[in-house]
Write a structure and sequence with these properties.
The structure holds two protein chains of two kinds. By secondary structure, chain A is mostly beta strands. In chain A, strand 7 and strand 8 form a beta hairpin. Chain A is globular, with a radius of gyration of 14 Å. The termini of chain A are far apart. By secondary structure, chain B is mainly β. In chain B, 0% of the residues lie in helices and 47% in strands. Chain B is globular and about 35 Å long. Classes of the chains: A mainly beta, B mainly beta. At the A-B interface, strand 4, strand 5 and strand 10 of A face strand 5 and strand 10 of B.
């Protein structure tokens, strides 16, 4: 079955440093979504990428979808304490009836003030 | 707009007991999902409903788990009998439709934290 891998599993950064998490799929994806889960909270949708090579920005967050649509990344510039949480990518594979989103294990971000 | 509601928020049971979770999706959302999130892992889809029909239940342990979405609105997820490895947070999510790329943002409820002793 489809597998979605994320690295690193944990990342500790000093406030103001940059942060990047990477997502790799074992199969070609039709689209990929990113979610953020604060400690004790539930996943909250951040963004969806659909096109090969797509890049989207949300303030300090930059999301990329690989040309082969098998990998993606989330980059945060100048982290703040409010960025603390676990970031998940979730991919949907190509093919008819492929509605299931497969989540990665997430990257847990800690920001040291 | 009200979010996805779930109850109870916490449940502690002993193994071999039964438990049920309830979910009320965002009004007008056709698709409802149940996920299991074990500590330190990402959510794993258990079952997906489109209105009151099942779209995907390939990862649902059907010997002990069951779910229904009567009338295409609320849903219940049941575990009978529970095992120790069922300890997890059970998340319900809904989306406008699960088949349209542009409209399938999933909105998650607060989850039910299940502890099986």
């Amino acid at each position: 079955g489809q597998q979605v891998m994320q690295i690193p599993q944990y990342q500790h950064v000093q406030e103001g440093e940059d942060f990047t998490t990477y997502c790799n799929s074992s199969t070609t994806l039709s689209n990929i979504q990113w979610y953020k889960q604060r400690p004790g909270g539930h996943p909250v949708f951040l963004i969806q990428l659909v096109k090969s090579g797509e890049v989207k920005k949300q303030k300090r967050l930059t999301f990329q979808f690989g040309e082969a649509k098998k990998n993606s990344s989330l980059h945060i510039t100048a982290t703040q304490t409010t960025d603390v949480g676990t970031y998940f990518c979730a991919g949907r594979s190509t093919g008819a009836g492929s509605y299931q989103l497969t989540f990665g294990k997430g990257t847990k971000l800690s920001v040291i003030p | 707009e009200a979010g996805v509601a779930q109850s109870p928020r916490y449940k502690i049971i002993e193994k071999r007991q039964s438990v049920a979770f309830w979910c009320n999706p965002i009004s007008g959302h056709a698709t409802l999902y149940w996920y299991q999130q074990i500590l330190g892992q990402g959510p794993k889809l258990l079952i997906q409903f489109q209105n009151n029909g099942v779209v995907d239940d390939s990862q649902l342990p059907k010997d002990r788990f069951s779910a229904e979405r009567l009338k295409g609105v609320d849903s219940t997820l049941k575990i009978q009998p529970a095992k120790l490895e069922d300890s997890a947070v059970y998340l319900c999510a809904s989306s406008v439709t699960g088949t349209s790329f542009s409209a399938d943002t999933q909105y998650f409820g607060p989850g039910t934290r299940l502890t099986v002793l």
